[in-house]
Amino acid sequence: xxTSTAVRQEAAxxxxxxxxxxxxxxxxxxxxxxxxxxxxxxxxxxxxxLEEIDQNASLYTPPATTTRDDSxxxxxxxPGSDSEFLRxxxxxxxxxxxxxxxxxxxxxKFYNPELDSALFAAHNEWMAGxxxxxxxxxxxxxxxxxxxxxxxxxxxxxxxxxxxxxxxxQVYIVPEDPSxxxxxxxxPIYAAAERAGLPIAMHVTGRPGMYNxxxxxxAAYHMETFAQWPQYFMANLTSLLFEGVFEKFxxxxxxxxEGGFTWAAPILWRLDKIWERLGGELTECPRRPSDYVRESIxxxxxxxxxxxxxxxxxxxxxxxxxxxLLMFSSDYPHYDFDSPAWAKGRLGRQRRERxxxxxxxxxxxxxxxxxxxxxxxxxxxxxxxxLSGTISLVRDTKPRYFAEQED
Length: 407
Prior knowledge:
Layout lengths: L13 E3 L3 E5 L5 H4 L7 H7 L35 H11 L4 E4 L11 H22 L6 E6 L5 H11 L5 E6 L13 H10 L3 E4 L9 E2 L2 E2 L3 H21 L2 H4 L5 E4 L6 H15 L10 H8 E4 L10 H10 L1 H4 E2 L12 H5 L7 H13 L4 E3 L2 H11 L23
């Protein structure tokens, strides 16, 4: 074909990625999962006890609900259960370009790893057909496959099963584990994740009984448990580093989700100091712990702490090297949801682009430019008329500090 007869095709419109949300929580309705559960678990555990199978969440719950009132779909049902309403609130109103979906149901059952594996395999199959299939025509959702850490061989097979799926973005395990996650029994999971090129996300869930045990006993209130979540991450981070997980699996990547981040720099200072003085004991950790973290581990923003002097938050971000190690998360649709607009003013001009998108793009290997789709047209209309939104603006007003300041 000559140039005179060639038909010039215009390039498809694209959008520069500005927000990657690493923590969005749809709901997995138990009734929808039932057909995917393998026997004998479907009959023995799932169908017979449909209402009871997931009633083992934290004993210490908020006074009303863990979700925002404005995230209840107009059609009714639980927040996160309506794919169309979630799409509008997350992709259109919040302006998220890519959303990592983390399903908190069914809850992990450490006491029955085989049941865990059966439920999670069903969940992964269901998620692939719904949220990563029929609800993902825009291609902007990435799923987190569930595995049971206490059934490591089955977990490794499940990771292998989903390796290469275009919309599976990571593996999900919980940090509230009876055993520190750096121990050798978990190595098959890490080997499979490294082999598949999938990061492992740790996300808190809140556990009953012994799984809410703290170094000083049991908490009495939800607010205590909520405040103590960073302890789970500290314990597991120490175990992973000192027991040599990233030395054995140099291609493995992990992200610690919904534990905040202001604790991370001080614990790394402490671990580096211990390593310098007692490193001879740590034959599995020949390098400085913080070196492994910079290479292999990331943290997410939610919940963002709000110090009395707001500028202190910027200092903590710099201590952590936030322009490299911190990724944005909203925790939609929970009551402490941090919208990108609300978070943006608290991150500082020099950090916000990396935290809101850049770090996640690098960590997950996502394209920095994506195809424009119908959600973008809808967002343009929303921005022209923000009062048409469904998300309350109570926490989304202009921040009282450093919206235009910088240290």
